[in-house]
Amino acid sequence: MEFKIPVDELQGIISRLSNVVKVNESGITGMILIDAGDDVKFKATDGNVNLVVTAKEVEVIEKGKVLLNLDKVKGYIMKFVPLIEDYGTKDFHFVVSDKLGLIKTKTCFQSGKPAYKKLKFEVFKPELYPIIKPFGEAQLIVNSNILKRGINRVLHCVNPGEVRKAITGVGITILQDSIVFAGTNGVKLAEFSIDINADLIQDTKVMSYNLASILRSTLDDDAQVFVIFDGRYIYIKSNNLYIIGNLIIGEDFPNYRPMFDLDRVISFPRVDFIDTIHAVMDVLDAEDNHRLTLNFNDKTLTIKNDRVDSVQTFDEPFESNLDIDVNGEFLDSLLHDFIGESLELNFTDGNNYIVFKASDNEKHTALLTVVKRR
């Protein structure tokens, strides 16, 4: 096998593959497969997610396949500077035999005296890499910004180590006019919906945490994404990327929507509230559940713990009074992505949770369990 690939092209591919290889749990830990045919495909897997990146610019001299350890070449490859005028390296020249691989380079300097470098790497049998199913007919077409934005709004609520399997990933509900993202660790929950047009029958899938993280960091911005759901797998194709990941099956994602139906509400300025919450983060006690007291009383809002307090008085009384303790760290993470001028805190007396909504944006909702009083 032999091919040449521009320096910046390969470095971009390696960066994407590293999102998968760094969490590798399969029997081919740290390995990537390079498949040079009419084009060159770079493949990586963590045992649950497969990522295939097709090189956009490449010169194939001789077709073939090779399996190699990414860690043995990544640091070397990433240090090269792409050629600009008379300084840098134009491309990587891969030459692979049955027993040995070489990466050849020519680095130009302003002195006019180029340096010729050659890195040797061990090769392994490409047959060890799992076979990847070709992409079929897409069931859903969606913009990448929608997926990345939705995942980003809820992923912070997900704990992949949670013992309850159904909440170790991101819940995705596809409706005819919207796609709804949800994540929870059993204490906090975030839901975010975005308008789309879809022909799929309403259904909820649970995407693994690793897959959601890889999509968020790997997909191009503002690109079409083609999606197929097939049993326990999801197949995603976008530009030069092909991603196959596991769905979490066997347990349904919690039916949390009825919990949003509460009978009391308190409205207040969003920026004031979030600024105060964020300001006290460093003085919360981790050994006491990052406890923070929220007290809405008539016209006065008090936010405090054992070390700090903030008191703010408004012109008009709140719709209701409320005095609760919450995990301040969780509260801060939930409120981070809200937009608009005001927030609504919804609750029902006797319930052990509260719900936040944006007064002028019904697409974003967050739920937080209260902390039991000492």
Automatic annotation (TrEMBL):
<keyword id="KW-0235">DNA replication</keyword>
<keyword id="KW-0963">Cytoplasm</keyword>
<feature type="domain" description="DNA polymerase III beta sliding clamp central">
    <location>
        <begin position="142"/>
        <end position="255"/>
    </location>
</feature>
<keyword id="KW-0548">Nucleotidyltransferase</keyword>
<dbReference type="GO" id="GO:0003677">
    <property type="term" value="F:DNA binding"/>
</dbReference>
<dbReference type="GO" id="GO:0009360">
    <property type="term" value="C:DNA polymerase III complex"/>
</dbReference>
<keyword id="KW-0239">DNA-directed DNA polymerase</keyword>
<keyword id="KW-0808">Transferase</keyword>
<dbReference type="GO" id="GO:0006271">
    <property type="term" value="P:DNA strand elongation involved in DNA replication"/>
</dbReference>
<dbReference type="InterPro" id="IPR001001">
    <property type="entry name" value="DNA_polIII_beta"/>
</dbReference>
<dbReference type="InterPro" id="IPR022637">
    <property type="entry name" value="DNA_polIII_beta_cen"/>
</dbReference>
<dbReference type="GO" id="GO:0005737">
    <property type="term" value="C:cytoplasm"/>
</dbReference>
<keyword id="KW-0238">DNA-binding</keyword>
<dbReference type="InterPro" id="IPR046938">
    <property type="entry name" value="DNA_clamp_sf"/>
</dbReference>
<dbReference type="GO" id="GO:0003887">
    <property type="term" value="F:DNA-directed DNA polymerase activity"/>
</dbReference>
<protein>
    <recommendedName>
        <fullName>DNA polymerase III beta sliding clamp central domain-containing protein</fullName>
    </recommendedName>
</protein>
<dbReference type="Pfam" id="PF02767">
    <property type="entry name" value="DNA_pol3_beta_2"/>
</dbReference>
<comment type="similarity">
    <text>Belongs to the beta sliding clamp family.</text>
</comment>
<dbReference type="GO" id="GO:0008408">
    <property type="term" value="F:3'-5' exonuclease activity"/>
</dbReference>
